[in-house]
Amino acid sequence: MRTVLFAVLLLISLPAVADEVKGSVVSLNASAAQMLPNDEAVVRFRIEAEGTQAEALSLRVNRISQAVSDRLGREKGVVLATTGRRLEPLWRDDKVSHRRVRNGWRLVQSGQAEGHDLAAVPGWVDAIERTGAHLDGLRFQASATALQAARDKLRMQAIARFRAEAAATAKALDATSFRILRLSTDSTGPGPMPMMAMARGAPALAPGESLVKVTVRGEILLPERDYPAK
User: Fold this and answer.
1) Residue 33: its H or E element
2) What is the pLDDT of residues 75-86, one digit of tens each?
3) Within 10 Å of residue 140's Cβ, how many Cβ atoms?
4) What is the pLDDT of residues 60-77, one digit of tens each?
5) Domains along the chain?
6) Is the pTM of this model over 0.85?
7) 45 near 135, Cβ under 8 Å?
8) Is 28 within 8 Å of 218 (Cβ atoms)?
9) Going by C-beta distance under 8 Å and a sequence separation of 6 or more, which residues neighbour residue 176?
C-alpha cells in the first residue's frame, strides 16, 4: 500500500476582503492519495433465447436464471441482481411482399454477481457458463466500506498537510501566526472500471488496485506587514 502527498500553494493579493479582515489572504490546497487494493468483484452476464413463442422463451430464460441463482446462492457473500430484461422482435425480408415480416422473438435478461471472495471468482465464472448463461465481463473494484475508511484516513492526512503548508507559508512571509478563513474537502475515487472481456474457462485473475485521493482547499489570513523595497 502506497501513500502519496501533494501540496500546491497560490498567493493571492486581496487588498480588501472585508472590514474585519486585514492582511494577506493566501489560498492553499493539499492532497493525500493512496493506492487501495481492490477487494470486490462484479461479474456481469446475460441469458438469451430466440424462438417464435414468447411464452416458451420466458420459461427457458427463467429456468437458466433460476439455475444461476441456485448455484451462486451457495457461495458465501455473493449478491445477485437482475439488471435488465427485454423482449425484441426478429424480422426477415419477405421477397414476395418486399416487406419486413416478424418471424420470431429474442428475450434477453442481464444480471450481475457481486462479492468479496476474490479467490472464488473463477468458480463463479465457470458456474455461470455451465448454466447456459453468457459472460459479459468482469470488474474488480474497491468496496464502499474500504473506500470510506481510506477517505477518512486521507482526509486527516490532507488536513495535517494543509496546516503544515500554512505554517510554512506564514514563516516564509515573516508572519508569527495565521488564521484559517475557509476550509473544504473533496475526494476522488476510482471511476467506473472497464469490464474485462471474458473467454470460456476459469481464468487466472489479478484484482489490482484503485487510486483514492482527498484534497483539502482553503484560505488563510496572514497579519498585515510592511516589507522593505529592495
Assistant:
1) strand 24-37
2) 999 999 999 999
3) 21
4) 999 999 999 999 999 999
5) 3-38+144-222 (3.30.110), 40-141 (3.30.70.2970)
6) no
7) yes
8) yes
9) 170, 223
